[in-house]
Amino acid sequence: MEKAEDSEAPLQASAGSAVSPVVMDSQPVVVLAENLQKRYGDVEALHGVSFEIRQGEVFGLLGPNGAGKTTTIEILEGLRQPDGGSARVCGLDPTSESKRLKERIGAQLQATVLPDKIRTEEALRLFASLYRRPAPVDALLTRFGLAEKRHAYFENLSGGQKQRLALALALVNNPELVLLDEPTSGLDAVVRRDIYSLIEQLRSEGRTVLLTTHYIEEAERLCDRVAIVDRGRVVALGTPRELVRGSGKGTRLEVRVERPMPIERIRQIEAVLDVREAGGAYILHAEPVPKAIVALVRLLEAEGNTLQDLHISQPSLEDVFVEITGRRMEE
Amino acid sequence: MAAIRIALTSVRLAMRTKAAMFFTFVFPLLFLFAYAGIFARGNPQAVAYLFGPVVVLQVMGSAFWGLGLQSVMRREQGSLRRYRLAPIGAGTMVGSSLIANFLLLIPTVALLVVCAMVVFHMPLEISIRDLAILVAVGAFAFAGFGLTVASVANTMQEAQIYNNMVWFPLLFLSGATFPLAMFPQWLQRVALFLPATYLVSAFQGVMSHADTLSAHWAELVALTVSGTFGLLFAWKLFRWEKEEKMKRSNKLLAVTFVVPFLLIGAWMNARGNPGSAWDAAFKMMSGGDSSAKASGSKTGGPATAVPAPPGSESGLVSDFDEGTPTAKFGSGWTVSTDSVMGGKSTAEMKVVDGGTEGSKGSLAVTGQVFAGAPYPWAGAMFYPGAQQFAPVNLSSKKEISFWAKGDGKTDRVMIFTKSLGYVPATQTFVAGSEWKQYSFPLTAFQGTDGHDLEAVLFSASTDPGTFAFQIDDVRFK
């Protein structure tokens, strides 16, 4: 299968994955999306989304709400029909070969709604029974920490337990490809980390995973490669490291000073690429960093101001997103 | 069998839901007790007659308000999406709904049967197998209806509106609430376009007329065809997502949903108006006698050339000289009162010594008429046909004649004919202390010529109070 071209991915890296580039590139393509288009009435949800996912890869679609992530994943699941473009998943057409495809993929919806009175184990056994090669339900209950809740009604499960059940349901058919639509959305940090480790287990099992998220941390931590999606387009694609490196953003400095000062003064400091204010601090991107820090300290001394705090970090995908779209992820 | 697995889970879920349990078990029992206790006054025959409508209400209710609305609710809530990710199609979902609905109806109907038999001593002439077939066919027919409404409706609110639009005509024009026999003929014709009519008609035939199920093959065929069309529509129009809107072509298809019912209604009408069968079933209930049940009957078609009853040539009905209330032809005499319609009137009849002109015996009828029933009556009824209310041709006779004496009050002689329907034609007479002969031309009974005569009732007047009269030498001349 030919590798999909992605003309709308300006930051697409030519190098392989940071995790195992050689291995990844040699793996067969499991998902191929080519120029997917979708319109809901007057709203154009997808403007030609293209990417490919190779076997064993954890691939993320990162973008704000309404970017087109869910529409893309639902087209790949066979739940929606694209208005243009094409998709192949596990070598099958999601629309015309939907039934065969569903035997081979597992999916977790953005919101999994089950009847209030269905028990955890009952739900797993029911859905497992709908497939030709079901996974052992007891093993799933144990693996997802639901063994003690096997007799609990769905309505009595906590948010985290419901999400774990949704993930377990995505694995009832022992799928080759797992599609997760915002698997940690709305969950607290502890539960989110819990879900991260479950997804990392999927990776270690060699399963191919496609997940959508609007959490930078999630994409950076879990994904081998990320496609940043905005307004129905893939605006960047690559490993998180490649994207950051390719952004030309330089190192990120978070500076707090005793007295506020005009942002223009900071922008004029040598080696500073850009600056903005956020939460009482100045966020700078600079290169080379030592030169910028020295110049900053000198400026503060000259103005009788004091440096209170300084954090140095590499730029994040958030920065990449801001650079490409001119907006922050949550806007 | 994915559909069966989903259906079994649906049944288990219903059993865990209080509202579902109420509407599955308690609600139909309330209907049974209301119908049997209030309308039938505990009369076993009347309970048998009303048992069909109670079951039909449950079958229809579960299809429209259970199955249909639940289907829309699942779509609105988004729980169908989870099923959509599995390798199953719309047919599996429709099939599972159908199976679950039937599985839930089995214990409901069983409970109704047991209660009707134990509490109200309802006779059950139909076999369990035939009852299951009838319920299954009904459930099949109306599941298609309910699911089609669910497929067409975009929201719960819309579904409720559509349900009401379909539900009320089915409820009030099918005989499930008002007896079909009470309808004018043109409305009976209209009722034949409604699938619910077929189920009510078949139920009442087998429950209170001891018909075999095969006697109602036409109704069963019509219901099966209705159900098949309904389920095909439901399958074709099935939507998984609330955002999915109906395509224009499907909207047109939805409009054609009524076509099969028009065709079936036309076919049923072409077969003839089964009004006589409905009348017979209803009057059977009113008569409160089961003697004719064993002999069976034929329903479902028009009464065409009605024969003269054998033994009627001389015209003599009864002279009561043998000491028993027997008749020279027909199926004899029974007590008939308004108790089956909720009244409290009572009557007794017995052959007593001494009749007119020195004959050996006569029929004494005594009792009390109470106010309260819409049409109070109490007296003795003669059926000229081999079965109660089976019409016979006595057009060779021109009048009815009898001798009577009594307490001096006004009494009534009432004639039932097929063409008159449920309401009999009445003439009155005053039976004094001496025997006197009374003769009424048949034409005096709303112009009847006796060609479709079903019954003759000698009754006290509608005035409350005790009554007593004797009749003798009843004959057609």
Fold and architecture overview:
The complex is a heterodimer of chains A (331) and B (477). Chain A has 331 residues and is α/β, with parallel strands linked by helices. Chain A is built from twelve helices and 13 strands. In chain A, helix 4 (120-128) crosses helix 5 (137-143). The longest helix of chain A is centred in the middle third of the chain and has 16 residues, at 189-204. Chain B is α+β, with helices and mostly antiparallel strands. Chain B contains 13 helices and eleven strands. In chain B, helix 3 (44-77) packs parallel to helix 6, helix 3 (44-77) packs antiparallel against helix 7 and helix 10 (217-237) packs antiparallel against helix 12.
- Count up the helices of chain B: 13
- Please tell me the overall pLDDT of chain B: 84
Q: What kind of sheet is the major sheet of chain A?
A: 6 strands, mixed
According to DSSP, the number of beta strands of chain A is: 13
Distance between the termini of chain A: 38 Å
